[in-house]
Amino acid sequence: MDNGLHRSSNEAVVVENLHKQFGDLEVLRGVSLRAHEGDVLSIIGSSGSGKSTLLRCINLLELPTSGEIKVAGEAILFNKTKKGLVPTDIKQVERLRTKLGMVFQSFNLWSHMTVLQNVMEVPIHVLKLPKAEAREQAEHFLNRVGLWEKRDQFPAFLSGGQQQRAAIARALAIGPRVMLFDEPTSALDPELVGEVLKVIKDLANEGRTMILVTHEMKFARDVSNQVIFLHNGLVEESGTSQQVFYETQSERCKAFVSSIH
Amino acid sequence: MVWSWIPEYLPKFMDGLLVTLQLLSLSIIFGMLFAIPIGLVQVTGPRWLAIIARGFCTVVRGTPLLIQLWLLYYGLGSLFPSIPGIRESFMWPILREAFPFALLAFTISVAGYEGEIMRGAFKSVPKGELEAARAFGMSRFTVLRRIWLPRAFQNVLPTLAGEFVLTLKATPLAATITVFEVYGIGSIVRQETYRIYEPLLFVAGIYIVLTGIIVVFFRWLEQRVPQPV
Ligand SMILES: Nc1ncnc2c1ncn2[C@@H]1O[C@H](COP(=O)(O)OP(=O)(O)OP(=O)(O)O)[C@@H](O)[C@H]1O
Ligand SMILES: [Mg+2]
């Protein structure tokens, strides 16, 4: 199982035989993945292959049709129904979600709050941190992503790159065990991609556990210790960055990653 | 133009102004307390509640306020005295008055019109912002309280200002069921002094000032709330 692929032996996120159906369309057809603490796992694949759906199943923004999900070693409890899985205990889901820091393609900052308020919101109102502590911590993370000067601005006045960095600070501030990124740079103008990738790379270098859906092949290759290539809702290839990008036997995978050679 | 009646009737107008302000502010407060859930269930379901809420808005918005007012006051109001023992009950002083019926009718009206506005307001909040809230572990109620509701209000603040001005301008209808608000006092002046235009102009002036206050208040409020992208 642990063929030297993982950076530790502590499970952070484990997905087992996940299926997801939208009506008649089966988007995920039995996907498994595991990320241990310290791992940087990239999910690549062509458009429509199910990458976002897979990521969104991990924090239950989408409910899987069947399968198992473990977050920080804890299995999410489900009731099986005709329509698919329904969480047994919504409180458990809410608690486990606070261990997953999600960063969205379209940032999804709360536009009625300043950048600082965005970052303080979950620590105060979900994690029940004292305000002063939440503020101090929020300023720390805003500083890290280079947005401390912009803390009192509203998101609408920020560039896309700044908004995404603010969204990363917001995710960091909940003290997540795992960061989830869903194409964090796809909505950005090309000249703004770099500043966001740099922040993500710094996080990887400091040993953060991350699961990253991306179209930035070079970045995925350089930053990940594990890569999964999804095709039509199945894991077509997986392994180390080296294995997936240079040693794959899959023609599809070869063709897909060829853009970086 | 003869304005010499003003000093004599000014205290009455002050009373009338108080009634107008009470009717307006209380019906807005109570009406909005209903409008929020009425708007919300039409977006979230359950379906049967959404249908009821939708039906309520349609009926309220589809019938004249004057008729609602009269139905409540002359219809419902005339039923009460026939209930045995009601005249002795502690509720009687309230049921005997016209103001509670006016307040009820205006509250229902605000709930109906603003319920529809709030439905649109809730719907217009970007899905992604709500999704982000859920993704960070907020409970449904916290999402509503911290994100959905404030975002919805941010979207409709300018619309609400206009709606409340319309509510203000409907308050003279209450005079038809003997609630002597500003317009009602104006009618008294007209009857007692046989002057027609001056009291009407005076009353119109009061409404303009009140409208101005509402508009300025909401401008101020809008400036304190950041505008959506
Ligand atoms: N809510 C939904 N309802 C119905 N179909 C959906 C829904 N979400 C996704 N799909 C479908 O599922 C498939 C996989 O979508 P998904 O977003 O996971 O792909 P992706 O790999 O992330 O693609 P992209 O690279 O374009 O983001 C697509 O065919 C999409 O149309
Ligand atoms: Mg996607």
What fraction of residues of chain B sit in β-strands?
A: under 5%
Order of helices and strands of chain B: HHHHHHHHH
The hetero compounds bound to this protein are: adenosine-5'-triphosphate, magnesium ion
Please give the share of residues in helix of chain B: over 70%
Distance between the termini of chain B: 52 Å
| Main β-sheet description of chain A | 6 strands, mixed
What's the number of domains of chain B?
A: 1
Query: Which bin fits the share of residues in helices of chain A?
Result: 25-40%
Uncertain parts of chain B: none
Strand content of chain A: 25-35%
Write the layout of secondary structure elements.
The complex is a heterodimer of chains A (261) and B (229).
Chain A: E1 11-22, E2 25-36, E3 40-45, H1 51-58, E4 66-71, E5 74-75, E6 78-81, E7 84-87, H2 90-97, E8 100-103, H3 115-125, H4 131-144, H5 160-172, E9 178-182, H6 190-205, E10 210-213, H7 217-223, E11 226-231, E12 234-239, H8 241-246, H9 251-257
Parallel strand pairs in A: 3-10, 3-11, 8-9, 9-10
Antiparallel strand pairs in A: 1-2, 1-4, 4-5, 6-7, 11-12
Chain B: H1 6-44, H2 47-62, H3 65-79, H4 92-96, H5 99-123, H6 127-135, H7 140-170, H8 182-193, H9 197-224
Helix pairs in contact in B: 1-2, 1-5, 1-8, 2-5, 3-5, 5-7, 6-7, 7-9, 8-9
Adenosine-5'-triphosphate binds next to strand 2 and helix 1 of chain A.
